[in-house]
Design a protein that fits this description.
399 residues; Nucleotidyltransferase, domain 5; 3 domains; five-stranded mixed beta sheet
């Protein structure tokens, strides 16, 4: 990493499939196992860590002392025992936090997030088409957020972006909805703030948040689809994150489904996101109601709940196109779980029946993945940005 300080992080460890290592990498792997067990079961004793991990007590003690020195873990309460020595319990250090940034085409949301995925503070910055001017606003906001929490230990900055990040350069290389020229956002922020910066696509970051904070061990094939102003996907296949060449894996939103369809921001016509995004739903509504005033997607959801038939039809059409695109993912990747994040989730009861019916009717072998909403709205992407820093390795070091 080209930064003043290398981010330390917590890898997601699938404890149902892990094997203890005896090679040169054993210390790192075992450290991550212990850290994951502390996160999942804190407060927890060293003896319980040894029992759950299968490691020797002496090894667990050495790892615990290392984690305490690194400030990831701290000693908490003393456990109550009927007899014998009372052990000191271990817990995550709540004072260790990161700055998470979720960038949208017109707005950036910033938050401070702790190791448990809890948001401590939040702010917003309005974006412009000038990335340099926007970055100055982001830096100013980050500086104020650090000043407001002087007793916290800031470990880094995670940035969720509506596009794809090159693995080698960590530069944003494909973000048609953002419409920025080539700009080294990472280096500028690192130099100004003095913290390491990790950047990743919003869908991949949101998937990392699910793997890190939600405890879905045992599921080895997951695709998370974000649906907001655009459509993107993060892929977890056979227990590994998949980012592809130059980080471009998962751009299902730009798979063409109708060559005569609307022009997409990427330059093609009829991409999946031109029919399934929230922008598409607003277009469907205006086609049904040409004289209606322009509204936001949240207002469209509200109109549907208030009984507006045109709004309901627009959302039903969006749901149908979401399902048709999911068929590409199901047939191509065969995930056991598909997670849906973004602005559609507040109205999931309206979307779910349409999506599930369409997907089931076209399943190749009758096997339909579990399709679940991530009911967190913007929080999923913010926690994803935080997870970029809390992971020991970046997603670019995965498959």
């Amino acid at each position: 990493m080209h930064s003043q300080k290398r981010a330390r992080g917590m890898s997601h460890i699938d404890l149902t499939n892990v094997q203890l290592a005896s090679s040169e990498t054993a210390r790192r792997i075992n450290r991550d196992i212990v850290l994951e067990l502390i996160r999942a079961g804190a407060p927890i004793s060293r003896a319980d860590l040894a029992r759950q991990s299968g490691l020797q007590r002496s090894t667990v003690s050495q790892i615990a002392e290392q984690l305490i020195r690194e400030k990831w873990v701290r000693e908490g309460a003393i456990a109550s025992r009927p007899r014998g020595r009372r052990p000191t319990l271990l817990e995550l250090n709540e004072d260790l936090i990161v700055i998470a940034v979720d960038i949208h085409p017109r707005l950036a949301i910033l938050a401070t997030v702790d190791l448990m995925g809890r948001l401590l503070s939040r702010a917003q910055v309005t974006l412009s088409s000038d990335p340099a001017a926007t970055t100055l606003l982001l830096i100013d906001c980050m500086t104020r957020m650090r000043e407001e929490l002087p007793n916290k230990s800031f470990e880094g900055i995670g940035i969720s972006v509506p596009g794809r990040v090159d693995a080698a350069t960590q530069r944003l290389i494909f973000a048609p909805n953002l419409n920025w020229p080539d700009y080294d956002l990472k280096s500028v922020i690192e130099k100004a703030v003095g913290l390491p910066v990790m950047m990743e696509n919003a869908a991949t970051a949101s998937l990392l948040a699910e793997l890190t904070f939600r405890r879905i061990d045992g599921v080895r094939d997951i695709v998370l689809v974000t649906i907001s102003e655009g459509v993107g996907a993060g892929i977890f296949a056979n227990g590994q994150l998949v980012v592809g060449n130059r980080g471009m894996a998962g751009e299902f939103g730009h798979v063409q489904i109708d060559p005569e369809g609307p022009r997409c921001a990427c330059g093609q016509k009829g991409c999946w996101e031109t029919f399934s995004s929230c922008r598409a739903a607003l277009r469907f509504y205006m086609e049904l109601q040409p004289a209606a005033k322009r509204i936001s997607y949240q207002e469209l959801l509200h109109l549907a709940e208030e009984g507006d038939d045109y709004a309901a039809k627009a959302l039903a059409k969006q749901a149908l196109y979401i399902a048709r695109g999911l068929r590409f993912i199901i047939n191509g990747l065969a995930p056991s779980v598909i997670l849906i994040a973004g602005e559609v989730t507040p109205a999931w009861r309206r979307f779910a029946p349409i999506i599930e019916k369409e997907v089931a009717q076209h399943a190749l072998d009758g096997a339909v993945p579990s399709i679940q909403p991530v009911h967190e709205g913007e929080l999923a992407r913010l926690r994803g940005a935080a997870a970029l820093v809390f992971q020991r390795s970046t997603v670019h070091e995965k498959v």
